[in-house]
Design goal:
50% strand, eleven-stranded antiparallel sheet, 426 residues, mainly beta, 23 strands, single chain
Length: 426
């Protein structure tokens, strides 16, 4: 049994934007005066319209590789806007548990930054396999769940697509897709920060800064996140607390618009996980008494997990009806060394010493057209991945069952050509 502790966190937030001057005045002075035009009284019909608009807000999604209104997108999709993410304090993908129909987020990884997902009961039980639910960050495919738990600090929206994804997604998946779209820097200066504290030594901090370096030409943004808490499980075998958390992540974006029809953006991101691996609590404990916060593992915590990536996105507007998009990315992670024990006992029954290394290159070209009643999306997708696993596992070692040294090197190539068109009769 593995108990997950979610400490209560008290969060203090400060945000600023050039577009929210009135909001800043409200915070500073406690009130804000509207201009003469804004002070006019709304009629009953206008109030009703405003109420209806507030009930069903317009959310733009790109699940079909082009911007569409969520209410008019024929896909089983759940989307969260930036305001919803902030209001509900969604800081990691685990916070989506209970928010998306059919989405299950069990704690199944051996490190805090590894997460398994299930949609409509379909998923993978081991993070080293190709996922049944694809994860995309700014249109870049994340091929494995190890180190893939992304902080939601600077997100513009989250899109969860339920059901098989194939036509518009070069790397087909059988259960669905989760798409994370972060803010792109622009002329507006944006800044936000929050700090949270709680019991068990819980502390988290997030910061975001974005703005123009050269107005209308060059922009940049920087995001940083830190999460930590003390171990909430005690291990008397090694005389220390385990199942602690210590994760840092950052993302830098540099965007250029040298001409009116060309948009170029470079993104660099990385994360560092030095939390202890999962220390399981055995159902049968020494002495017979069960304590859900006791583990008896003999090996010391060891987890060096680093993930990083770089991507280049280019959007070229050919004319008013046609645009081309290129997304080139290189990503990888190194999880070495990692040790964990499956049984939670001091006896060596199931102990693993692991080195995981992964790197991948993805390239996607898109051509999107909108000619009145006819619109289409087409593209080419390519993936090359190299995943190596060196896992030394001990399971009831004896003369007839020696330690197993599992070494594997998996190379994956995936190519796809896709297109989809729509004709609107009215």
């Amino acid at each position: 049994m593995f108990r997950v502790h979610n400490p209560p966190v008290v969060t203090v937030t400060h945000a600023a934007s050039t577009a929210t001057l009135c909001g800043l005045l409200t915070v500073a002075a406690g009130l804000c005066f509207a201009g003469p035009a804004d002070a006019q009284t709304l009629t009953s019909s206008q109030s009703a319209d405003a109420s209806a608009d507030a009930t069903v807000p317009e959310i733009t999604v790109t699940a079909q590789k082009r911007a569409t209104d969520l209410q008019e997108t024929p896909i089983a999709i759940t989307a969260f806007s930036a305001q919803q993410i902030e209001d509900q304090h969604l800081t990691t993908l685990r916070d989506l548990a209970g928010e998306v129909p059919g989405l299950s987020i069990p704690r199944g990884g051996i490190t805090p930054t590894t997460q398994l997902f299930y949609l409509r009961g379909i998923g993978e039980g081991d993070p080293i396999f190709d996922p049944a639910i694809a994860l995309y960050v700014d249109d870049v495919y994340i091929p494995r769940s190890i180190g893939g738990l992304t902080d939601l600090t600077d997100l513009d929206r989250v899109e969860v697509l339920r059901g098989p994804q194939g036509t518009l997604y070069g790397r087909n998946t059988s259960a669905g897709a989760i798409r994370l779209i972060s803010h792109d820097p622009g002329n507006d200066t944006r800044a936000s920060a929050d700090i949270g504290v709680g019991d068990w030594g819980a502390f988290e901090a997030h910061g975001y800064l974005s703005g123009a370096i050269v107005e209308n030409k060059l922009y940049a943004s920087l995001t940083y996140s830190h999460r930590q808490h003390d171990g909430y499980t005690y291990d008397p075998t090694i005389s220390r607390d385990v199942n602690d958390l210590d994760v840092d992540s950052a993302r830098l974006k540099i965007r250029a618009t040298p001409t009116d029809n060309l948009d170029i953006q470079l993104t660099v991101d990385g994360s560092r996980d030095r939390s202890s691996t999962a220390y399981y609590t055995p159902k049968v404990q020494p002495g017979g008494a069960f304590d859900p916060q006791l583990s008896f593992v003999s090996n010391l915590p060891q987890n060096d997990d680093d993930t990083a990536g770089v991507s280049l996105r280019e959007i070229y507007t050919i004319n008013d009806h046609l645009s081309a998009k290129s997304i080139t990315a290189y990503r990888g992670f190194n999880q070495a060394p990692v040790t964990y024990d499956n049984d939670g006992l001091a006896a060596v029954q199931q102990v693993n010493f692991i080195h995981y290394h992964e790197s991948e290159v993805t390239q996607e070209f898109q051509l999107n057209g909108d000619y009145g009643p006819v619109n289409f999306t087409s593209g080419i997708f390519f993936l090359h991945e190299n995943f190596s696993s060196n896992r030394n596992g001990f399971t009831f070692p004896s003369a007839t069952n020696p330690p197993q040294d599992q070494v594997g090197d998996t190379k994956t190539n995936s190519e796809a050509v896709y297109t989809q068109g729509t004709y609107n009769f009215d």
